[in-house]
Write a structure and sequence with these properties.
The protein has about 450 residues and is mainly alpha-helical. The chain contains 21 helices and no strands. The longest helix is centred in the C-terminal third of the chain and has 34 residues. The N and C termini lie far apart (about 45 Å).
Length: about 450
């Protein structure tokens, strides 16, 4: 029975999480309970728990993780400054005479909002509040409108600078070093958050292109589902100025943040500082800044950051107890015994992560599942950047998939009551197909994720 304790621990953690208990306390409490059982039965070495203070100090002194509150601040400030709302209105007027034009506007704004917030829930809710009423009012198919909003909202998983990629990059960096040390490589190579940011650019843009192509096809073959917006005044120099004023500043901020990382001028943490300060300047420039708004943004940033770091600490304790019961060796044996080698192991991990995405958020999966499976997969020769992008897109797809997709729940919370839930489910299916196709393309051609980092940092 003792050899199966890691699997029992993992199953109990998932079960307690499904009951709605807070993630951080579930991870820590369940792990301590199992550690106590292990101490009483003599199957757990207490020396593993002695490493917990060092783990906590390492988490709180990790320079990379300082980027998390800064990027959250940037995203929340841009969201509460109504910059996305103004941009959507202007782009909607620009693309108005084109069939599907409002859908194109939503995809563009969703992409920029995803790049600025990096948080799926915030993007879906914001886009649902400002764009769903506009699309329905202008005669768009409810399924197309809801599907477009959910799909573009999940781009926060993959479009850098993404909070998900920052956390995933930190976890994969540690897992990659573990894998190389087990392989006898005592001068291990590193994988950074910047590597994941660069690796995510091409797959992210392919996804956006896929959304554009699908919307265009619907507009061509079912014009009643994506009609042109006719009630638009002729374009004027004043409108063009307003459009550029709404589009260029946030776009330049995102380019400055990403550009400073890609060119090596700044670390992700330093670039996050640029983004946070830049979002503050934009709010002032747009006349949306006041002390009340600053207090709201800081409160939201504190809540999200506290949640993430508490989960970090709980996950560190879970990882120590899991290893103390021999969980890593068990996973390694299972993967090595699978017929098909690396392919079967990767397929199994992707399937498990996809299914867990129905019940767990990306933060829990990144902290609970990735540290267990990543060292084993990386020791089998899998590229860490490719693995990170595959996990990110896989979770993005899981968050869209009925009946449990998180993005569907977020949009359901702000959608009008007369919009049936089955319409939401129907609307996301074509976008799920697009994302699965991109995931398959990335599986066949890993260079889509690894080529650009090699060119820039190789």
């Amino acid at each position: 029975m003792a050899e199966f304790m890691p699997l029992v621990l993992f199953a109990v953690v998932c079960l307690v999480l499904m009951c709605g208990f807070p993630v951080a306390f579930t991870l820590a409490g369940t792990s301590l309970l199992f550690a106590g059982i292990g101490l009483l039965t003599g199957t757990f070495d207490p020396a593993f728990l002695n490493a917990m203070p060092n783990r906590m100090f390492g988490i709180l002194s990790n320079q990379i993780l300082v980027a998390v509150p800064l990027f959250v601040f940037m995203g929340v400030m841009l969201e509460k400054s109504k910059i996305a709302e103004q941009l959507l209105r202007n782009l909607g007027l620009l693309f108005g005479p084109v069939r599907g034009g409002l859908g194109f506007s939503v995809i563009i704004v969703g992409m920029l909002l995803a790049a600025s917030t990096g948080i799926v829930g915030a993007t879906v809710v914001t886009m649902g509040l400002i764009s769903l009423p506009a699309m329905l009012r202008n005669g768009y198919s409810p399924s197309l409108a809801s599907g477009t909003i959910c799909a573009t909202g999940t781009l926060g998983q993959i479009i850098p600078p993404s909070t998900a990629l920052i956390i995933l990059g930190d976890v994969l960096s540690s897992a990659y070093q573990q894998a190389q040390l087990k392989m006898g490589i005592f001068s291990p190579e590193t994988v950074s958050v910047a590597d994941l940011f660069v690796g995510a650019l091409i797959p992210g843009l392919i996804l956006v292109l896929g959304y554009f192509i699908y919307t265009s096809i619907v507009a061509i073959f079912k014009p009643e589902a994506a009609p042109a917006v006719q009630d638009r005044e002729p374009l004027s120099p004043g409108f063009i100025f307003e459009l550029l004023k709404g589009l260029l500043p946030p776009l330049l901020l995102i380019v400055a943040v990403l550009g400073s990382i890609l060119t090596g001028k700044a670390t992700p943490t330093e670039a996050a500082g640029i983004g946070a300060f830049g979002s503050l300047l934009l709010a002032i420039a747009y006349g949306q800044f006041n002390l009340q708004r600053l207090r709201e943004v800081m409160d939201a940033t504190l809540q999200v950051t506290s949640m993430i770091f508490l989960i970090f600490i709980g996950a560190a304790l879970f990882s120590l107890v899991f290893r103390g019961f021999g969980g890593e060796e068990l996973v390694h044996e299972v993967f090595n015994d699978l017929p098909g080698g690396v392919f079967s192991a990767m397929l199994l991990v992707m399937l498990v992560i996809f299914l867990l995405g129905f019940i767990l958020d990306f933060i829990e999966i990144t902290f609970v599942v990735v540290p267990i499976v990543a060292p084993v997969l990386l020791a089998m020769g899998i590229d860490p950047v490719w693995l990170g992008i595959m996990i990110a897109i896989n979770l993005q797809t899981s968050f869209l998939t009925p009946p449990f997709g998180f993005a569907l729940f977020y949009l359901r919370g702000v959608a009008p009551p007369e919009l049936p839930t089955r319409t939401l489910y129907k609307g996301v299916i074509p976008f799920i197909v697009i994302q699965v196709a991109v995931l398959g393309l990335l599986a066949v051609f890993p260079e889509l994720a690894t080529w650009l980092p090699d060119q820039i940092y190789g």
